[in-house]
Design brief:
This protein is mainly beta and about 80 residues long. The protein has one helix and four strands; from the N terminus they run βαβββ. It has a four-stranded antiparallel sheet, covered by helices on one side. Strand 2 and strand 3 form a beta hairpin.
Length: about 80
């Protein structure tokens, strides 16, 4: 089974590049199958990691960034892949 973990945060005013650099610099205790980083208008940063695991397995996740970098706590979602359509 493939599980995707999504982590999304909105940067504090004027801190978008710093938040992006922080997210890119975060290592995980083990490597996912795939990892992608995105940015969106409003200085939002999204990191998606894919894992060969069951939906409820314990998996490494990005931590919360320093409060000064964010406008709000990060959002987190977990998805089970249903395959390509």
């Amino acid at each position: 089974m493939t599980v995707a973990l999504m982590w999304e945060a909105r940067a504090a005013e004027g801190r978008g590049e710093e938040l992006l650099a922080w997210a890119r610099g975060q290592g995980l205790p083990r490597e996912p199958v795939r990892r992608e980083t995105f940015r969106a208008p409003g200085d939002r940063v999204l990191v998606v990691t894919w894992w060969d695991a069951a939906l409820h397995d314990t998996l490494p996740e990005l931590p919360a960034p320093p409060d000064v970098l964010t406008a709000r706590p990060p959002h987190r979602w977990r998805f089970e892949s249903l395959g390509l359509t």
